[in-house]
Amino acid sequence: MIDSAEKLLAGTTREQRQVLLIVDVQNDFCAGGALAVPHANAIVPLINQFSPHFAHVICTQDWHCPGHISFASSHPGKKLYEIIETQSGAQMLWPDHCVANTHGAEFDGQLDRARCEFVVRKGTHKYLDSYSAFLENDKITQTGLHAYLQQRALTSLFLVGLATDYCVAFTAIDARKLGYQTIMLQAACRAIDMNGSLERACERMDKVGVSRL
Ligand SMILES: [Zn+2]
């Protein structure tokens, strides 16, 4: 897996239309964080290794206000990981995480962001969650990433980050639907993988033509 990603990158050095999209490599999703993804920190050196191969590097950042709709603590009587119905559809209830301007919301300290040109914040509305870096969970509200990429004629996205089965997968699927060439570099992603969520996410990505290397 790593071999194929490295071979691919060897042939695509600083290709002008290609973007490395680093999804949610934030303290709360890394070791010791409120919603730590297993083995998340293992991907950081690899992402740092990939970064210089890309002309464009963009980071996403989950960014919630206190009392956000996605937090179990905002719904008295509801449990962690329970799914509730909201105006924008089914909502999984998570531990409080990535609260704006807290340590948990900051990028992992080992992530090299020297070449990051744009940060997309998502999930910023109190009553609306966002797994995808393009469209929030109502499937209407845009984050601004699509406009940014379009205006710069950036057409090819390489995704790395956290978590494979949620924010990476939702971002990759929306990217395909919007017409981007979309490649997920699996060695530099890690999943939560709860109740078969990784397998389901991979099936959904395959269906819309996301390449998984
Ligand atoms: Zn979140």
Would you give an account of this structure?
By secondary structure, the protein is of the alpha/beta class. It has a single domain, classed as 3-Layer(aba) Sandwich (Rossmann fold), CATH 3.40.50. It has five helices and eight strands, in the order αβαββββαβαβαβ. A six-stranded parallel sheet has the order 5-2-1-6-7-8. Strands 3-4 form a two-stranded antiparallel sheet. It binds zinc ion (ZN).
Largest sheet: 6 strands, parallel
Beta-strand portion reads 15-25%
Number of strands: 8
Q: CATH superfamily assignment?
A: Isochorismatase-like
Broad shape: globular
The assigned CATH architecture is 3-Layer(aba) Sandwich
Mean pLDDT: 94
Number of helices: 5
- CATH topology call: Rossmann fold
What features would you highlight for this structure?
213 residues, alpha/beta, Rossmann fold, six-stranded parallel β-sheet, two-stranded antiparallel ribbon, 5 helices, 8 strands, 22% strand, binds zinc ion
List the helices and strands and how they pair.
Blueprint: H1 2-10, E1 18-23, H2 44-50, E2 56-62, E3 83-86, E4 89-92, E5 116-122, H3 145-151, E6 156-162, H4 164-177, E7 181-190, H5 197-208, E8 211-212
Parallel strand pairs: 1-2, 1-6, 2-5, 6-7, 7-8
Antiparallel strand pairs: 3-4
Helix pairs in contact: 4-5
This protein binds zinc ion (ZN).
The site of zinc ion has 6 residues, from loops.
In brief:
With 213 residues, the protein is α/β, with parallel strands linked by helices.
